[in-house]
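Q: I have two molecules that I believe assemble together. Could you output structure tokens for the complex as a whole instead of separate predictions?
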Amino acid sequence: MRSQWLDSALLTAPGRHKNGNYIVKDNRPVNLDIGTMRLPLTAWASITHRASGVFIFIGMAVLLWVLDASLRSPESFASVVDWLSGGLFKFVLWAILSGLIYHSVAGVKHLVADFGIGESLEGGILAARLVIAVSAVLIVLAGLWIW
Amino acid sequence: MVTAVTSFGRSGVSDWLLQRVSAVILLAYFTVIGFSIAGGVDYVEWKALFEQTWMRIFSMLAIFSLAAHAWIGMWAVFTDYLTERLLGTTGNVLRLGCQIGTSLLIFVYVIWAIQILWGN
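A: Yes, here they are, computed for all two components at once.
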């Protein structure tokens, strides 16, 4: 389930259904303050999924720019290859790729959870650990591939 | 008050399903791109790949998936953190501003992608 801890407890309490639309009740008392809580690993995995999503949405501009330049002409393609020898450009690409990797792996976890797998507390913690471990390996591999 | 008026499908279940379908399409697309460039690629091969009809259709499918996926995802983030409860009236103004910015950026991405695929 999508960040259950967040949706149901903290910020936008799931609303009632009216005329088929999702309406968030704003008069429900809110007793929890996210800033005063120690977030468990599952919460970190979830919030990183969100943060990486926002990040790669912005980063998509860089990827489109690279795609544009790489397809325009042989000279333009050569200049992309040339940029790739620069450290800063490598780092930017690696950062976007890392965001994409984490977001994808965490996304697969959601899809798996949609089939009812790993919905228990233990299952959720294990899944979060797996997501972090698998992403870390892939992010390192992406770094090795770029450099 | 945060309502469903700015969500993508105007219904939580619709957004939930679209988010997953678009996610699978995007995952497949980035996997294909990843495998195409992992072993190194030259201009001729790269250009030829994007001139194939299936690749152009797949790319369009991916960019439209990205449009829906980003809209739904950014909506979820904005309506959680940029709210009246957390930030007062500023929250509402900021949220709507961010949503307008997001939709503009999505629009730019879609047009840009079309331009890349058919304009070059």
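A: One point stands out. Chain B has a mean pLDDT of 92.
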